[in-house]
Amino acid sequence: MNMTGLSRQLRLMLRGEILVIQAKLGFAMRRVTMLALALLLAGVGLVFVNIAVFAWLSPMWGPVWTPAGLGLINLALAGAALGLALALRPGPELALAEEIRAMAGESLEAEIRSAPLLGSLAGGGVGLDRSALAGLLVPAVGSIIGALGKRRKQAAKSD
User: Fold this and answer.
1) Would the pLDDT of 124 be above 60?
2) Higher pLDDT, 25 or 112
């Protein structure tokens, strides 16, 4: 097996995973920031509108129906805001990062399947079957990538 090619494919696969994580994290941060800002501004505005509408409707609807009507209107506005938040979709950078990750995985798998695996390294001894080695290597690479992701999250939390 060409170790340089395998190393290059592993680096590419790792870079693809990092890009996917960065794209997802960036999208989540933008979404949370916009939701927080929208909720803050909507809350302030809603308080003043509720005070004005309550003062206007109280003589006509009475002390019981005025708060009930305003509560229903507020629930409808909250439902609309929730619908807008759920309608947000990730941008094209996530699709690109996932495409790079998939290409790297396919290339790595093709490299593993096409190379004579461990047979030449064992000095003519009994080598592992290609499918068995691929079955061992892919989870190992996944574990390495997962460990690197956890380490990165821990480093981000400590900063």
Assistant:
1) no
2) 25
> What percentage of residues in the chain have a pLDDT greater than 70?
81
Query: Which residue has tokens 């592993």?
Result: 10
Question: Rounded to an integer, what distance in angstroms lies between the CA atom of residue 111 and that of residue 101?
Answer: 15
d(CA 140, CA 1): 17
The alpha carbon of 153 is separated from its chain's Cα centroid by a whole number of angstroms, namely 13
CA distance 81 to 70: 17
Burial (CB count <10 Å: 0-12, 13-18, 19+), residue 138: middle
**pLDDT band for position 33 (50/70/90)?**
very high
pLDDT over threshold 50, residue 79 = yes
**Cβ-contact 31, 85 below 8 angstroms:** yes
Distances (CA, A) of 26 to 13, 18, 55, 91: 20, 12, 44, 10
Distance CA 52, CA 73 (A): 14
Q: Are 22 and 97 in contact (CB under 8 A)?
A: yes
Q: For residues 24 and 19, give the distance between their C-alpha atoms in angstroms, rounded to a whole number.
A: 9
- Stated pTM of the model: 0.38
- For residue 128, the 8-state DSSP code is P
